[in-house]
Design a protein that fits this description.
Alpha-Beta Plaits, four-stranded antiparallel beta sheet, Rossmann fold, alpha/beta, 16 helices, 3 domains, seven-stranded mixed beta sheet
């Protein structure tokens, strides 16, 4: 019997989860030669919800199939419900699969009902339907030994979105109201096939700015720090401000460089992130307006594939106050990112860029996934994604990597 002459049956099963539920019910369907049109299953705590969509032929309607399913469900302590779907309703559902799909990812120390209500409200107002909700983080204990909790919930949505910039703006506004980061991505083949991640170094892979630490040792810390902060906010031209800061380091002994290498810590989550990326076959790069002497140590420690940074000029064991051209500024970072991608045979949709300063915006905008990490407001507004409330390894959630899949 063709689909046009038959109904479609939705079978919904719920109850305590235990091994064998799906096998028992699909075994009954198999004995009646049922054709499965769709199936989905989820387990929350110890409760299972299973849905099976099958073609309901005339032979099945006159058989004991439904009775057998009812008896088996009762035997297993499950509730079961049958809903008839017409052929026209089924065709309309099949036809809707061409809608655009998006992922909305919520990240924070905890996820409250207020967060979900606010985000789902924005999603609904923009005409998107939530198709699936997944938890990517580990299970949350009732009591934690510290306050460093981390929770990630991913909403898979679909629909005809009229204004992508508007929904992004509303979600960004929510992050200012709640202790929450929210990412909005296209759910497409590139999201599952990115292969290169490029990082800024200072205040991204490491905690702090190397040039500020060097300046403190040179006795010009306040002057350099003020210039650095203005440059990162986008208030000063990077090249001019960078050369001015370097000039203030003139006369600093080379031993100070080693001292800084030994004292600045990695950003929290950096080792877990890069270790997981390497295990998954990603290429990694440091594209930094900082200095190569520190970048080389990071490259060795983390196993980074590419490094491009600024070469601080030394003469007779002393910093000259000059940098060897070319200066790695925002434009050069973007150009280098394009060159590395081409060398690896990748298009830019397969590339991720991560940074915190205004000079990172060109590469964040060029990459398929640009992430402002603990960034200044101007950078968060200019990037498509932002993470401020987790360590660097929170980026793994935006790639769909679950906690149990990440490097320990």
């Amino acid at each position: 019997m063709t689909l046009s002459l038959s109904q479609v049956l939705l079978i919904e099963v719920s109850g305590p989860d235990h091994p064998g539920v799906t096998h028992s019910l699909t075994g009954i369907l198999a004995s009646h030669s049922a054709r499965v049109l769709d199936i989905g299953q989820a387990v929350i705590h110890s409760s299972l919800a299973l849905g099976i969509l099958v073609e309901m032929t005339a032979g099945m309607r006159s058989s004991a199939m439904l009775t057998d399913l009812l008896l088996k469900a009762h035997e297993m302590g499950m509730q079961i419900r049958f809903t008839a779907i017409s052929a026209d309703e089924y065709r309309a559902w099949v036809g809707s699969q061409g809608k655009r799909r998006f992922l909305v990812t919520l990240l924070g120390p905890s996820i409250e009902a207020a967060h979900l209500a606010a985000v789902s409200g924005v999603v609904a107002r923009h005409g998107l339907n939530i198709d699936r909700i997944d938890r990517l983080s580990g299970r949350t204990p009732l009591e934690s030994a510290d306050d460093t909790g981390r929770v990630c919930i991913e909403l898979a949505t679909s629909g005809g979105l009229a204004d992508e910039s508007a929904i992004r703006g509303e979600l960004l506004d929510l992050t200012a109201e709640h202790d929450l980061d929210i990412a909005f991505q296209h759910d497409d083949v590139y999201r599952r096939n990115r292969r290169l991640v490029a990082f800024d170094m200072d205040s991204t892979l490491i905690q702090g700015e190397v040039i500020d630490e060097l300046a403190a040792l040179a006795g010009v810390g306040e002057q350099v720090r003020a210039i650095t902060e203005a440059a990162m906010r986008g208030e000063l031209d990077f090249q001019a401000s960078f050369r001015k800061r370097v000039s203030l380091l003139k006369g600093l002994p080379e031993a100070a460089l080693t001292q800084v290498v030994e004292t600045i810590p990695l950003m929290d989550g950096a080792e877990r992130l890069v270790g997981t990326l390497r295990r998954l076959g990603y290429k990694t790069a440091i594209l930094s307006g900082g200095f190569t002497f520190f970048g080389r140590e990071l490259q060795r420690r983390l196993g980074i594939d590419y490094l491009h940074a600024n070469e601080l000029e030394l003469r007779d064991g002393v910093v000259t106050g000059e940098v060897i051209p070319p200066v790695v500024d925002g434009a050069r970072k973007a150009a280098l990112l394009g060159e590395i991608a081409a060398r690896e045979g990748l298009n830019m949709e397969q590339v991720i860029a991560v940074g915190d300063g205004a000079n990172d915006l060109p590469m964040l905008r060029l990459a398929g996934l640009g992430i402002a990490f603990r960034a200044k407001p101007v950078v968060r507004r200019g990037a498509r994604q932002a993470i401020s409330r987790m360590g660097l390894d929170g980026i793994l959630y935006l790639l769909g990597v679950r906690d149990r899949e990440a490097a320990s």
